[in-house]
Amino acid sequence: MNDLAILTKAMIQERKDIAMAIIGGFIAGIAGVCLFAASGYMISQTVFAPPLYTLIVLTSLVKILGLLRAASRYGERLYSHRATFTILSRLRTSFFAKLVPLTPGILGKKRSGELLARIVGDVESLQHYFIRVAYPPVVVVMVFLATVLFTSAFSFWMACLFVLGMLATAFAVPGLVLLGQRRIHGRVRQQRAVFSTEVTELLYGFRDLKVYGQLKKREQQLQQTSAALAVEQQAAARHLLRGQSLHTFVTYLISWGVLVLGAYLIMHGSLAGVFLAMLVMASLTVFEEASAMATLPAYKQDSEHAARRLAETVHATDKQPPQPSGVLSVEQAFAIELCGVTFQYEDEWRPAVKNISLEFPPGSKTAIVGPSGSGKTTIIELLLKLRTTTEGRIRLNGISVEELDEASIWQASNVVLQHSHFFRGTIRDNLLLNEEQHHSDEVLSAMLDKVQLTNKSLDDEVYEKGENLSDGEKQRLALARAMLRKGRLWLLDEPTSSLDYVTEQRVFRHLLTQAVDDTLLLICHRLTGLEKMDRILVMDQGRVIEAGSYAELMEQKGYFYEMKQIELQMIGEAGSY
Protein backbone atom coordinates (compact mmCIF):
# COMPACT_ATOMS: atom_id res chain seq x y z
CA MET A 1 0.00 0.00 0.00
CA ASN A 2 1.24 3.51 -0.80
CA ASP A 3 2.05 5.12 2.54
CA LEU A 4 0.66 8.47 1.39
CA ALA A 5 -2.44 7.01 -0.30
CA ILE A 6 -4.80 8.19 2.46
CA LEU A 7 -3.26 11.67 2.36
CA THR A 8 -3.46 11.84 -1.43
CA LYS A 9 -7.11 10.82 -1.34
CA ALA A 10 -7.85 13.52 1.24
CA MET A 11 -6.09 16.12 -0.93
CA ILE A 12 -8.15 15.12 -3.97
CA GLN A 13 -11.31 15.63 -1.94
CA GLU A 14 -10.16 19.20 -1.19
CA ARG A 15 -9.13 19.97 -4.77
CA LYS A 16 -11.26 23.12 -4.98
CA ASP A 17 -9.57 24.80 -2.02
CA ILE A 18 -6.18 23.56 -3.24
CA ALA A 19 -6.79 25.02 -6.71
CA MET A 20 -7.85 28.35 -5.18
CA ALA A 21 -4.73 28.34 -2.96
CA ILE A 22 -2.47 27.70 -5.98
CA ILE A 23 -4.13 30.48 -7.98
CA GLY A 24 -3.85 32.85 -5.02
CA GLY A 25 -0.22 31.91 -4.45
CA PHE A 26 0.65 32.43 -8.12
CA ILE A 27 -1.05 35.84 -8.27
CA ALA A 28 0.62 36.89 -5.02
CA GLY A 29 4.01 35.72 -6.25
CA ILE A 30 3.85 37.31 -9.68
CA ALA A 31 2.31 40.47 -8.22
CA GLY A 32 5.27 40.71 -5.84
CA VAL A 33 7.74 40.33 -8.69
CA CYS A 34 5.91 42.94 -10.74
CA LEU A 35 5.64 45.26 -7.73
CA PHE A 36 9.38 45.32 -7.06
CA ALA A 37 10.23 45.35 -10.77
CA ALA A 38 7.93 48.34 -11.28
CA SER A 39 9.51 50.03 -8.24
CA GLY A 40 12.99 49.54 -9.68
CA TYR A 41 11.90 50.79 -13.07
CA MET A 42 10.23 53.83 -11.51
CA ILE A 43 13.39 54.69 -9.57
CA SER A 44 15.44 54.41 -12.75
CA GLN A 45 12.99 56.59 -14.70
CA THR A 46 13.19 59.40 -12.16
CA VAL A 47 16.84 59.91 -13.11
CA PHE A 48 15.76 60.95 -16.62
CA ALA A 49 13.07 63.42 -15.37
CA PRO A 50 10.14 61.73 -17.19
CA PRO A 51 6.76 63.38 -17.79
CA LEU A 52 4.51 63.68 -14.77
CA TYR A 53 1.93 61.30 -16.20
CA THR A 54 4.63 58.56 -16.41
CA LEU A 55 5.36 58.87 -12.71
CA ILE A 56 1.64 58.96 -11.92
CA VAL A 57 1.07 55.76 -13.92
CA LEU A 58 4.05 54.02 -12.32
CA THR A 59 3.07 55.12 -8.82
CA SER A 60 -0.52 53.97 -9.34
CA LEU A 61 0.72 50.66 -10.74
CA VAL A 62 2.89 50.09 -7.68
CA LYS A 63 -0.04 50.80 -5.35
CA ILE A 64 -2.38 48.52 -7.30
CA LEU A 65 0.19 45.73 -7.34
CA GLY A 66 0.72 46.17 -3.59
CA LEU A 67 -3.01 45.85 -2.92
CA LEU A 68 -3.29 42.90 -5.32
CA ARG A 69 -0.38 41.14 -3.66
CA ALA A 70 -1.84 41.60 -0.18
CA ALA A 71 -5.34 40.48 -1.21
CA SER A 72 -4.15 37.43 -3.14
CA ARG A 73 -1.76 36.47 -0.32
CA TYR A 74 -4.66 36.61 2.12
CA GLY A 75 -6.75 34.41 -0.18
CA GLU A 76 -3.86 31.98 -0.61
CA ARG A 77 -3.41 31.70 3.16
CA LEU A 78 -7.15 31.31 3.69
CA TYR A 79 -7.67 28.50 1.18
CA SER A 80 -4.39 26.69 1.82
CA HIS A 81 -4.91 26.58 5.58
CA ARG A 82 -8.57 25.65 5.24
CA ALA A 83 -7.57 22.81 2.93
CA THR A 84 -4.82 21.76 5.35
CA PHE A 85 -7.08 21.61 8.39
CA THR A 86 -9.81 19.81 6.48
CA ILE A 87 -7.29 17.28 5.18
CA LEU A 88 -6.03 16.80 8.72
CA SER A 89 -9.58 16.18 9.92
CA ARG A 90 -10.12 13.59 7.20
CA LEU A 91 -6.84 11.91 8.10
CA ARG A 92 -7.79 11.60 11.77
CA THR A 93 -11.20 10.19 10.90
CA SER A 94 -9.83 7.76 8.32
CA PHE A 95 -6.97 6.56 10.51
CA PHE A 96 -9.20 6.09 13.54
CA ALA A 97 -11.76 4.20 11.43
CA LYS A 98 -8.99 1.83 10.31
CA LEU A 99 -7.60 1.54 13.83
CA VAL A 100 -10.83 0.59 15.63
CA PRO A 101 -11.27 -2.84 14.00
CA LEU A 102 -7.72 -3.78 14.99
CA THR A 103 -8.36 -3.48 18.73
CA PRO A 104 -7.71 -5.11 21.10
CA GLY A 105 -5.03 -7.02 19.19
CA ILE A 106 -3.00 -3.93 18.40
CA LEU A 107 -2.95 -2.95 22.08
CA GLY A 108 -0.97 -6.09 22.81
CA LYS A 109 1.60 -5.31 20.13
CA LYS A 110 2.11 -1.57 20.65
CA ARG A 111 2.94 0.22 23.86
CA SER A 112 0.20 2.69 24.71
CA GLY A 113 2.55 5.68 24.67
CA GLU A 114 3.92 4.76 21.25
CA LEU A 115 0.40 4.26 19.90
CA LEU A 116 -0.59 7.64 21.32
CA ALA A 117 2.41 9.23 19.60
CA ARG A 118 1.29 7.77 16.29
CA ILE A 119 -2.34 8.79 16.68
CA VAL A 120 -1.47 12.36 17.70
CA GLY A 121 2.08 13.22 16.65
CA ASP A 122 2.32 11.42 13.33
CA VAL A 123 -1.09 12.59 12.17
CA GLU A 124 -0.17 16.14 13.15
CA SER A 125 3.07 15.85 11.15
CA LEU A 126 1.10 15.19 7.98
CA GLN A 127 -0.49 18.64 8.17
CA HIS A 128 2.77 19.99 6.70
CA TYR A 129 2.65 17.77 3.62
CA PHE A 130 0.36 19.92 1.50
CA ILE A 131 1.34 23.39 2.68
CA ARG A 132 5.12 22.77 2.82
CA VAL A 133 5.75 19.84 0.45
CA ALA A 134 3.13 19.52 -2.30
CA TYR A 135 2.09 23.15 -2.65
CA PRO A 136 5.36 25.23 -2.79
CA PRO A 137 6.95 23.56 -5.89
CA VAL A 138 3.82 24.18 -7.99
CA VAL A 139 3.67 27.89 -7.14
CA VAL A 140 7.45 28.37 -7.39
CA VAL A 141 7.65 26.82 -10.86
CA MET A 142 4.66 28.85 -12.08
CA VAL A 143 6.09 32.14 -10.76
CA PHE A 144 9.57 31.37 -12.07
CA LEU A 145 8.33 30.48 -15.55
CA ALA A 146 6.26 33.69 -15.73
CA THR A 147 9.28 35.72 -14.57
CA VAL A 148 11.57 34.03 -17.09
CA LEU A 149 9.13 34.83 -19.91
CA PHE A 150 8.99 38.44 -18.68
CA THR A 151 12.80 38.69 -18.47
CA SER A 152 13.33 37.10 -21.91
CA ALA A 153 11.54 40.10 -23.44
CA PHE A 154 14.50 42.25 -22.34
CA SER A 155 17.45 39.85 -22.56
CA PHE A 156 17.81 36.19 -23.53
CA TRP A 157 20.99 35.81 -21.44
CA MET A 158 19.33 37.36 -18.42
CA ALA A 159 16.48 34.84 -18.80
CA CYS A 160 19.04 32.01 -18.93
CA LEU A 161 20.57 33.27 -15.68
CA PHE A 162 17.11 33.25 -14.08
CA VAL A 163 16.62 29.65 -15.27
CA LEU A 164 19.99 28.74 -13.75
CA GLY A 165 18.94 30.38 -10.51
CA MET A 166 15.63 28.50 -10.57
CA LEU A 167 17.45 25.17 -11.01
CA ALA A 168 19.84 26.04 -8.18
CA THR A 169 17.24 27.18 -5.64
CA ALA A 170 14.39 24.84 -6.58
CA PHE A 171 16.40 21.65 -7.15
CA ALA A 172 20.11 21.85 -6.26
CA VAL A 173 19.72 23.38 -2.79
CA PRO A 174 16.85 21.05 -1.77
CA GLY A 175 18.88 18.12 -3.11
CA LEU A 176 21.86 19.01 -0.92
CA VAL A 177 19.56 19.46 2.06
CA LEU A 178 18.01 16.07 1.34
CA LEU A 179 21.39 14.34 1.38
CA GLY A 180 22.05 15.62 4.87
CA GLN A 181 18.48 14.99 5.94
CA ARG A 182 18.82 11.26 5.26
CA ARG A 183 21.38 11.01 8.05
CA ILE A 184 18.87 12.19 10.63
CA HIS A 185 15.82 10.68 8.91
CA GLY A 186 13.13 9.79 11.41
CA ARG A 187 15.30 10.13 14.51
CA VAL A 188 13.33 13.03 15.97
CA ARG A 189 10.03 11.25 15.32
CA GLN A 190 11.29 8.00 16.86
CA GLN A 191 12.75 9.77 19.87
CA ARG A 192 9.50 11.68 20.34
CA ALA A 193 7.62 8.37 20.34
CA VAL A 194 10.00 6.98 22.97
CA PHE A 195 9.52 10.09 25.09
CA SER A 196 5.72 9.87 24.79
CA THR A 197 5.86 6.20 25.80
CA GLU A 198 7.98 6.94 28.87
CA VAL A 199 5.71 9.79 29.97
CA THR A 200 2.59 7.64 29.58
CA GLU A 201 4.03 4.74 31.56
CA LEU A 202 5.29 7.06 34.29
CA LEU A 203 1.84 8.58 34.70
CA TYR A 204 0.05 5.22 34.61
CA GLY A 205 2.49 3.56 37.01
CA PHE A 206 3.15 6.54 39.28
CA ARG A 207 1.58 4.96 42.35
CA ASP A 208 3.38 1.62 42.02
CA LEU A 209 6.67 3.31 41.24
CA LYS A 210 6.22 5.43 44.37
CA VAL A 211 5.44 2.42 46.54
CA TYR A 212 8.40 0.39 45.30
CA GLY A 213 10.83 3.28 45.44
CA GLN A 214 11.49 3.35 41.70
CA LEU A 215 10.05 6.80 41.00
CA LYS A 216 13.39 8.63 41.08
CA LYS A 217 14.94 6.09 38.74
CA ARG A 218 12.13 6.43 36.21
CA GLU A 219 12.24 10.22 36.50
CA GLN A 220 15.95 10.15 35.67
CA GLN A 221 15.25 7.84 32.76
CA LEU A 222 12.57 10.25 31.54
CA GLN A 223 14.98 13.19 31.84
CA GLN A 224 17.57 11.29 29.79
CA THR A 225 14.97 10.55 27.13
CA SER A 226 13.93 14.21 27.12
CA ALA A 227 17.55 15.30 26.75
CA ALA A 228 18.06 12.88 23.86
CA LEU A 229 14.95 14.27 22.17
CA ALA A 230 16.22 17.83 22.65
CA VAL A 231 19.56 16.89 21.07
CA GLU A 232 17.85 15.39 18.03
CA GLN A 233 15.55 18.41 17.70
CA GLN A 234 18.53 20.77 17.88
CA ALA A 235 20.33 18.76 15.19
CA ALA A 236 17.26 18.89 12.96
CA ALA A 237 16.88 22.65 13.57
CA ARG A 238 20.55 23.27 12.70
CA HIS A 239 20.13 21.27 9.51
CA LEU A 240 17.09 23.34 8.52
CA LEU A 241 19.00 26.53 9.30
CA ARG A 242 21.90 25.42 7.10
CA GLY A 243 19.48 24.77 4.26
CA GLN A 244 17.89 28.21 4.64
CA SER A 245 21.32 29.87 4.83
CA LEU A 246 22.45 28.06 1.68
CA HIS A 247 19.31 29.21 -0.11
CA THR A 248 19.93 32.83 0.97
CA PHE A 249 23.53 32.61 -0.21
CA VAL A 250 22.49 31.30 -3.64
CA THR A 251 19.77 33.96 -3.88
CA TYR A 252 22.22 36.82 -3.33
CA LEU A 253 24.77 35.14 -5.56
CA ILE A 254 22.27 35.03 -8.44
CA SER A 255 21.24 38.66 -7.75
CA TRP A 256 24.89 39.73 -7.95
CA GLY A 257 25.12 37.71 -11.14
CA VAL A 258 22.13 39.63 -12.54
CA LEU A 259 23.83 42.91 -11.64
CA VAL A 260 27.16 41.91 -13.22
CA LEU A 261 25.57 40.42 -16.33
CA GLY A 262 23.31 43.47 -16.68
CA ALA A 263 26.31 45.81 -16.49
CA TYR A 264 28.10 43.77 -19.12
CA LEU A 265 25.07 43.79 -21.45
CA ILE A 266 24.64 47.54 -20.98
CA MET A 267 28.29 48.14 -21.88
CA HIS A 268 27.80 46.21 -25.12
CA GLY A 269 24.48 47.90 -25.88
CA SER A 270 22.40 44.72 -25.54
CA LEU A 271 20.31 46.08 -22.66
CA ALA A 272 18.98 49.53 -21.84
CA GLY A 273 20.36 50.82 -18.56
CA VAL A 274 16.94 51.87 -17.32
CA PHE A 275 15.94 48.18 -16.97
CA LEU A 276 18.85 47.07 -14.78
CA ALA A 277 17.32 48.07 -11.43
CA MET A 278 14.04 46.47 -12.51
CA LEU A 279 15.72 43.12 -13.25
CA VAL A 280 17.76 43.17 -10.04
CA MET A 281 14.63 43.85 -7.94
CA ALA A 282 12.74 41.11 -9.83
CA SER A 283 15.50 38.60 -9.10
CA LEU A 284 15.48 39.40 -5.39
CA THR A 285 11.72 38.95 -5.21
CA VAL A 286 11.35 35.82 -7.32
CA PHE A 287 13.99 33.95 -5.32
CA GLU A 288 12.25 35.00 -2.13
CA GLU A 289 9.24 32.98 -3.34
CA ALA A 290 11.51 29.94 -3.56
CA SER A 291 12.59 30.11 0.09
CA ALA A 292 10.11 27.37 1.01
CA MET A 293 12.06 24.94 -1.18
CA ALA A 294 14.98 25.01 1.26
CA THR A 295 12.92 23.36 4.01
CA LEU A 296 10.86 21.15 1.71
CA PRO A 297 13.10 18.04 2.03
CA ALA A 298 12.91 18.09 5.82
CA TYR A 299 9.13 18.27 5.85
CA LYS A 300 8.94 15.70 3.05
CA GLN A 301 11.05 13.20 4.97
CA ASP A 302 9.09 13.87 8.16
CA SER A 303 5.74 13.43 6.42
CA GLU A 304 6.81 10.23 4.66
CA HIS A 305 8.15 8.80 7.91
CA ALA A 306 4.92 9.67 9.74
CA ALA A 307 2.81 8.19 6.92
CA ARG A 308 4.91 5.01 7.00
CA ARG A 309 4.40 4.61 10.75
CA LEU A 310 0.66 5.12 10.39
CA ALA A 311 0.54 2.61 7.53
CA GLU A 312 2.44 0.09 9.67
CA THR A 313 -0.06 0.59 12.48
CA VAL A 314 -3.09 -0.23 10.33
CA HIS A 315 -1.32 -2.51 7.83
CA ALA A 316 -3.51 -5.44 8.82
CA THR A 317 -6.59 -3.69 7.45
CA ASP A 318 -5.27 -4.19 3.92
CA LYS A 319 -5.72 -7.94 4.33
CA GLN A 320 -9.14 -7.86 5.94
CA PRO A 321 -12.16 -9.03 3.96
CA PRO A 322 -15.16 -6.75 3.51
CA GLN A 323 -17.16 -6.06 6.66
CA PRO A 324 -19.84 -8.78 7.04
CA SER A 325 -23.45 -7.70 7.39
CA GLY A 326 -25.02 -10.61 9.30
CA VAL A 327 -27.19 -9.59 12.24
CA LEU A 328 -28.16 -11.56 15.35
CA SER A 329 -31.64 -11.49 16.77
CA VAL A 330 -32.09 -10.80 20.48
CA GLU A 331 -35.53 -12.36 20.55
CA GLN A 332 -34.22 -15.83 21.45
CA ALA A 333 -31.49 -17.32 23.60
CA PHE A 334 -28.25 -18.12 21.82
CA ALA A 335 -27.06 -21.51 20.67
CA ILE A 336 -23.25 -21.63 20.52
CA GLU A 337 -21.15 -24.14 18.61
CA LEU A 338 -17.35 -24.39 18.51
CA CYS A 339 -15.97 -26.79 15.90
CA GLY A 340 -12.26 -27.62 16.17
CA VAL A 341 -11.38 -24.11 17.34
CA THR A 342 -7.70 -23.29 17.72
CA PHE A 343 -6.21 -19.89 18.45
CA GLN A 344 -2.55 -18.97 18.80
CA TYR A 345 -1.20 -15.54 19.67
CA GLU A 346 1.44 -14.10 17.40
CA ASP A 347 4.99 -15.11 18.41
CA GLU A 348 3.67 -17.58 21.01
CA TRP A 349 5.11 -21.09 20.90
CA ARG A 350 1.84 -22.86 21.78
CA PRO A 351 -1.85 -22.19 21.08
CA ALA A 352 -3.96 -20.46 23.73
CA VAL A 353 -6.81 -22.86 22.88
CA LYS A 354 -6.35 -26.01 20.82
CA ASN A 355 -8.89 -28.06 18.87
CA ILE A 356 -11.89 -27.29 21.07
CA SER A 357 -15.30 -28.55 19.98
CA LEU A 358 -18.22 -27.58 22.21
CA GLU A 359 -21.95 -26.96 22.04
CA PHE A 360 -23.92 -24.66 24.31
CA PRO A 361 -27.69 -25.18 23.95
CA PRO A 362 -30.02 -22.15 24.09
CA GLY A 363 -30.74 -21.13 27.67
CA SER A 364 -27.91 -23.24 29.12
CA LYS A 365 -25.78 -22.14 32.06
CA THR A 366 -22.11 -23.11 31.73
CA ALA A 367 -19.15 -22.41 33.99
CA ILE A 368 -15.58 -22.58 32.70
CA VAL A 369 -12.91 -23.17 35.34
CA GLY A 370 -9.22 -23.91 35.30
CA PRO A 371 -5.84 -22.43 36.19
CA SER A 372 -4.72 -19.03 34.92
CA GLY A 373 -3.51 -19.13 31.33
CA SER A 374 -5.61 -22.16 30.41
CA GLY A 375 -7.49 -20.29 27.63
CA LYS A 376 -10.75 -19.43 29.38
CA THR A 377 -10.76 -15.71 28.54
CA THR A 378 -9.66 -16.44 24.97
CA ILE A 379 -12.91 -18.34 24.35
CA ILE A 380 -14.98 -15.29 25.31
CA GLU A 381 -12.82 -13.02 23.13
CA LEU A 382 -13.33 -15.39 20.18
CA LEU A 383 -17.10 -15.39 20.76
CA LEU A 384 -17.13 -11.59 20.80
CA LYS A 385 -15.04 -11.54 17.61
CA LEU A 386 -12.35 -9.56 19.41
CA ARG A 387 -9.97 -12.17 18.04
CA THR A 388 -10.14 -14.42 15.00
CA THR A 389 -9.67 -18.17 15.21
CA THR A 390 -6.48 -19.63 13.78
CA GLU A 391 -8.37 -22.78 12.85
CA GLY A 392 -11.93 -24.01 13.22
CA ARG A 393 -15.29 -22.30 13.15
CA ILE A 394 -17.63 -20.67 15.68
CA ARG A 395 -21.37 -20.43 15.10
CA LEU A 396 -23.94 -18.34 16.96
CA ASN A 397 -27.52 -19.48 16.33
CA GLY A 398 -26.19 -21.49 13.40
CA ILE A 399 -24.46 -18.48 11.78
CA SER A 400 -20.68 -18.35 11.49
CA VAL A 401 -19.19 -15.40 13.36
CA GLU A 402 -17.24 -14.59 10.18
CA GLU A 403 -20.56 -13.72 8.55
CA LEU A 404 -21.77 -11.61 11.47
CA ASP A 405 -21.24 -7.91 11.98
CA GLU A 406 -19.21 -7.65 15.19
CA ALA A 407 -21.40 -4.76 16.38
CA SER A 408 -24.39 -7.10 16.18
CA ILE A 409 -22.65 -9.62 18.44
CA TRP A 410 -21.76 -6.96 20.99
CA GLN A 411 -25.25 -5.52 20.97
CA ALA A 412 -26.81 -8.93 21.58
CA SER A 413 -24.44 -9.78 24.46
CA ASN A 414 -24.24 -8.78 28.10
CA VAL A 415 -20.53 -8.77 28.80
CA VAL A 416 -18.39 -8.30 31.90
CA LEU A 417 -14.68 -8.63 31.20
CA GLN A 418 -11.88 -8.97 33.73
CA HIS A 419 -11.02 -5.30 33.47
CA SER A 420 -13.95 -2.98 32.83
CA HIS A 421 -13.35 0.64 31.94
CA PHE A 422 -15.10 3.49 33.73
CA PHE A 423 -15.28 7.05 32.45
CA ARG A 424 -14.99 10.21 34.44
CA GLY A 425 -18.49 11.36 35.36
CA THR A 426 -21.17 10.01 37.67
CA ILE A 427 -22.52 6.57 38.48
CA ARG A 428 -25.48 7.43 36.25
CA ASP A 429 -23.22 8.30 33.32
CA ASN A 430 -21.38 5.00 33.59
CA LEU A 431 -24.60 3.00 33.76
CA LEU A 432 -26.16 4.71 30.75
CA LEU A 433 -23.51 3.90 28.16
CA ASN A 434 -26.03 2.33 25.79
CA GLU A 435 -27.72 5.20 23.96
CA GLU A 436 -30.38 2.90 22.48
CA GLN A 437 -31.80 2.05 25.90
CA HIS A 438 -33.21 4.63 28.29
CA HIS A 439 -33.74 3.91 31.99
CA SER A 440 -35.29 6.04 34.65
CA ASP A 441 -33.48 6.89 37.86
CA GLU A 442 -35.80 4.49 39.69
CA VAL A 443 -34.67 1.59 37.49
CA LEU A 444 -31.02 2.54 37.90
CA SER A 445 -31.32 2.81 41.68
CA ALA A 446 -33.07 -0.57 41.84
CA MET A 447 -30.23 -2.09 39.84
CA LEU A 448 -27.67 -0.66 42.27
CA ASP A 449 -29.61 -2.37 45.07
CA LYS A 450 -29.49 -5.70 43.21
CA VAL A 451 -25.72 -5.58 42.93
CA GLN A 452 -25.36 -4.53 46.57
CA LEU A 453 -24.25 -0.95 45.88
CA THR A 454 -26.74 0.56 48.28
CA ASN A 455 -24.11 2.97 49.60
CA LYS A 456 -23.80 4.64 46.19
CA SER A 457 -26.11 7.22 44.64
CA LEU A 458 -26.55 7.96 40.96
CA ASP A 459 -24.90 11.36 41.34
CA ASP A 460 -21.75 10.06 43.04
CA GLU A 461 -18.65 11.05 41.12
CA VAL A 462 -16.54 8.46 39.31
CA TYR A 463 -12.93 9.31 38.51
CA GLU A 464 -11.20 8.34 35.31
CA LYS A 465 -10.73 4.54 35.15
CA GLY A 466 -12.78 4.34 38.37
CA GLU A 467 -9.80 5.33 40.52
CA ASN A 468 -12.04 6.22 43.47
CA LEU A 469 -13.82 2.83 43.42
CA SER A 470 -12.64 -0.37 45.04
CA ASP A 471 -12.19 -3.47 42.88
CA GLY A 472 -15.39 -4.93 44.32
CA GLU A 473 -17.34 -1.76 43.55
CA LYS A 474 -15.98 -1.74 40.00
CA GLN A 475 -17.12 -5.33 39.47
CA ARG A 476 -20.59 -4.67 40.85
CA LEU A 477 -20.96 -1.52 38.76
CA ALA A 478 -19.88 -3.48 35.67
CA LEU A 479 -22.45 -6.16 36.49
CA ALA A 480 -25.15 -3.52 36.93
CA ARG A 481 -24.24 -2.06 33.54
CA ALA A 482 -24.52 -5.50 31.94
CA MET A 483 -27.82 -6.31 33.68
CA LEU A 484 -29.36 -3.15 32.25
CA ARG A 485 -28.91 -4.51 28.74
CA LYS A 486 -31.41 -6.70 26.90
CA GLY A 487 -29.01 -9.21 25.33
CA ARG A 488 -29.73 -12.93 25.45
CA LEU A 489 -26.08 -14.03 25.72
CA TRP A 490 -24.20 -13.51 28.99
CA LEU A 491 -20.41 -13.64 28.89
CA LEU A 492 -18.98 -13.10 32.36
CA ASP A 493 -15.22 -13.25 32.99
CA GLU A 494 -14.38 -13.32 36.70
CA PRO A 495 -17.25 -10.88 37.47
CA THR A 496 -17.18 -11.37 41.26
CA SER A 497 -13.58 -12.31 42.05
CA SER A 498 -13.18 -9.31 44.38
CA LEU A 499 -16.44 -9.83 46.28
CA ASP A 500 -16.92 -11.60 49.57
CA TYR A 501 -18.91 -14.83 49.54
CA VAL A 502 -22.16 -13.39 50.93
CA THR A 503 -22.25 -10.43 48.54
CA GLU A 504 -21.31 -12.70 45.63
CA GLN A 505 -24.21 -15.07 46.31
CA ARG A 506 -26.72 -12.20 46.59
CA VAL A 507 -25.55 -10.67 43.31
CA PHE A 508 -25.60 -14.02 41.53
CA ARG A 509 -29.10 -14.73 42.74
CA HIS A 510 -30.42 -11.60 41.01
CA LEU A 511 -28.28 -12.22 37.93
CA LEU A 512 -29.47 -15.82 37.46
CA THR A 513 -33.05 -14.73 37.97
CA GLN A 514 -32.73 -12.21 35.15
CA ALA A 515 -30.86 -14.65 32.89
CA VAL A 516 -33.11 -17.63 33.61
CA ASP A 517 -34.02 -18.12 29.94
CA ASP A 518 -30.77 -16.85 28.46
CA THR A 519 -27.49 -18.52 27.52
CA LEU A 520 -24.80 -17.83 30.11
CA LEU A 521 -21.07 -18.52 30.15
CA LEU A 522 -19.28 -17.86 33.42
CA ILE A 523 -15.51 -17.90 33.85
CA CYS A 524 -14.43 -18.21 37.45
CA HIS A 525 -11.76 -19.53 39.79
CA ARG A 526 -14.05 -19.95 42.77
CA LEU A 527 -15.89 -23.26 42.71
CA THR A 528 -18.48 -22.38 45.35
CA GLY A 529 -22.00 -22.02 44.00
CA LEU A 530 -21.35 -23.89 40.75
CA GLU A 531 -24.00 -26.43 41.71
CA LYS A 532 -26.47 -24.09 39.99
CA MET A 533 -24.70 -24.46 36.63
CA ASP A 534 -26.02 -26.91 34.04
CA ARG A 535 -22.50 -27.84 33.00
CA ILE A 536 -18.95 -27.17 34.10
CA LEU A 537 -15.98 -27.19 31.72
CA VAL A 538 -12.50 -27.70 33.17
CA MET A 539 -9.68 -26.30 31.00
CA ASP A 540 -5.93 -26.73 31.21
CA GLN A 541 -3.29 -25.62 28.69
CA GLY A 542 -5.87 -24.67 26.09
CA ARG A 543 -7.85 -27.92 26.20
CA VAL A 544 -11.08 -29.05 27.84
CA ILE A 545 -9.99 -31.92 30.09
CA GLU A 546 -13.27 -32.48 31.95
CA ALA A 547 -16.93 -31.65 31.33
CA GLY A 548 -20.13 -32.41 33.20
CA SER A 549 -22.44 -31.26 35.94
CA TYR A 550 -21.16 -30.46 39.42
CA ALA A 551 -22.31 -33.81 40.78
CA GLU A 552 -20.81 -35.75 37.86
CA LEU A 553 -17.42 -34.10 38.19
CA MET A 554 -17.33 -34.66 41.94
CA GLU A 555 -18.14 -38.35 41.38
CA GLN A 556 -15.32 -38.69 38.84
CA LYS A 557 -12.82 -37.43 41.44
CA GLY A 558 -10.63 -35.97 38.74
CA TYR A 559 -9.09 -32.56 38.24
CA PHE A 560 -12.21 -30.63 39.31
CA TYR A 561 -12.56 -32.76 42.44
CA GLU A 562 -8.94 -32.00 43.40
CA MET A 563 -9.48 -28.28 42.83
CA LYS A 564 -12.58 -28.39 45.05
CA GLN A 565 -10.73 -30.19 47.83
CA ILE A 566 -7.94 -27.63 47.75
CA GLU A 567 -10.51 -24.81 47.92
CA LEU A 568 -12.28 -26.41 50.88
CA GLN A 569 -8.95 -26.89 52.64
CA MET A 570 -8.01 -23.23 52.11
CA ILE A 571 -11.43 -22.06 53.34
CA GLY A 572 -11.03 -24.24 56.42
CA GLU A 573 -7.58 -22.87 57.14
CA ALA A 574 -8.83 -19.31 56.70
CA GLY A 575 -11.71 -20.01 59.09
CA SER A 576 -9.36 -21.30 61.75
CA TYR A 577 -7.75 -17.88 61.94
UniProtKB/TrEMBL annotation:
Residues annotated as transmembrane: 21-42, 48-68, 129-150, 156-179, 249-267
Keyword Transmembrane: yes
Sequence ranges assigned to domain ABC transmembrane type-1 in this UniProt record: 19-296
Native source organism of the sequence: Paenibacillus terreus
Protein name per Swiss-Prot or TrEMBL: Thiol reductant ABC exporter subunit CydC
ABC transporter domain mapped to chain residues: 336-566
NCBIfam families assigned to the protein according to its UniProt record, in alphabetical order: CydC (TIGR02868)
Stored SMART domains: AAA
Top-level division of the source organism's lineage: Bacteria
InterPro entries referenced in this protein's UniProt entry, alphabetically: AAA+_ATPase, ABC1_TM_dom, ABC1_TM_sf, ABC_CydC/D, ABC_transporter-like_ATP-bd, P-loop_NTPase, Type_1_exporter
Keywords: ATP-binding, Membrane, Nucleotide-binding, Transmembrane, Transmembrane helix
Membrane-topology descriptor: Multi-pass membrane protein
Keyword Cytoplasm: no
